Amino acid sequence: MPRTGIFGGSFNPIHYGHLLLADQVVEILDLDRLLFVPAASPPHKPLGDLAPAEDRIAMVRLAIAGHPRFAVSDLELRRTGPSYTVDTVEELARGGDELYFMMGSETFLDLLTWHAPQRLAALAHLVVVPRAGSAFDPESAATRKILAILGACAIARVEGGVIPARGPFLVHAVSLPLSASDIRGRLLEGRSVAYRLPPEVIAYIAERRLYRDIPA
User: Fold this and answer.
1) What phi and psi, each to the nearest 5 degrees, are found at residue 71?
2) Is residue 25 part of a domain?
């Protein structure tokens, strides 16, 4: 059964931190492909600072071009209303692939505020990736509470190329100290974003004059 990773987010804009993390997760989990899924209107984020959806997905396409295992899905952009992750994963599950949904450790600790988290965990393995410098504790009371509600005993560790049969999985990957909000702030102030974004994305942002009239 093919293994497909799912990397959702606003990608506002996509940057090298996203790309490095995705490449490492593909390698660690030996995924056949990883789908970048830009959100149209993420329920947990304000809309005021979002570039248009068509621009964000265009930037993702530019950023991932040439990577043999990266692909992009416009599934959430074609859906009206808020983009609930579980709806997206449910639709992707119909393709028959084994699904691995990527999330940061902070997001995992927030999971119970999401729509239908138990259903999400039933449809896909949850791949928990702590950020650099994160104090995430897989044994903490908060983590255990989430695991209990998901029907899991512990977060399995992926080590030495051995992938446990059941998730959630804890994957340690190098993360760059980059944030889309900082990049938007730099663009708004006319500062350099070199070495933070692929050159093709920087050129697209300049051509479309993005992130100039929205708050950082």
Assistant:
1) -145, 165
2) yes
